[in-house]
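Input record, target 12 of the design panel.
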């Protein structure tokens, strides 16, 4: 009894359960061994969850080499179909809501563009009306003289001719007076001024008969 106790005393004390650092295993062989053990433990936990809680469980795992492993209760295919069918209504509703929001945004943009077009049309109409009023208010001096003369009646033409003859006489008298004043002062008249001021003979000569 004493010998057993002494042997036990000489035994190295246990370090207990050590915490393993979670990181990628560099050795390919060790990584494959770890995958096999962990996969079995993972499927065992899934089976226990299904039995203890009466839950439907499906698990799919791909190995580093790309091989697939699965566990399902009652089956992986049944649970996948159930999952996809239950997700379709929510997805459809989401897509429908997204379509409604897109249509609403397009309607808003159309309304803004329509308002801009209407405002542009209104500004153009106001500008055209303003230009038309300005054209109507333009004096006769801005109009085409030949077009105006062509639209005159014979009586209006005779009156215009009389006025032009009177203007011709006034201009000629003014030019003669300026020449006489220049001669009296003993200054030579400016040829350029005389030519510019004095109208050439017959320039304003109009016949009273049209």
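The sequence produced for target 12 reads:
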């Amino acid at each position: 009894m004493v010998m057993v106790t002494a042997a036990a005393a000489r035994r190295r004390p246990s370090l207990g359960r050590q915490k393993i650092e979670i990181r990628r295993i560099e050795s390919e062989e060790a990584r494959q061994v770890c995958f096999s053990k962990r996969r079995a433990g993972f499927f065992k936990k899934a089976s226990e969850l299904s039995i203890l809680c009466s839950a439907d469980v499906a698990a799919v795992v791909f190995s580093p080499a790309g091989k697939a492993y699965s566990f399902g209760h009652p089956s992986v295919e049944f649970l996948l179909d159930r999952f996809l069918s239950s997700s379709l209504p929510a997805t459809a509703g989401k897509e429908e809501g997204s379509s409604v929001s897109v249509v609403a945004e397009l309607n808003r943009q159309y309304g803004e563009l329509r308002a801009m077009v209407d405002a542009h049309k209104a500004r153009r109409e106001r500008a055209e009306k303003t230009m038309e009023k300005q054209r109507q208010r333009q004096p006769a001096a801005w109009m085409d003289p030949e077009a105006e003369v062509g639209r005159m009646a014979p009586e209006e033409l005779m009156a215009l001719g009389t006025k032009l003859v009177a203007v011709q006489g006034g201009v000629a008298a003014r030019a003669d007076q300026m020449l006489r004043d220049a001669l009296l002062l003993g200054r030579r008249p400016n040829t350029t001024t005389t030519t510019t001021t004095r109208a050439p003979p017959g320039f304003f000569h109009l016949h009273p008969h049209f």
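The chain has a mean pLDDT of 75.
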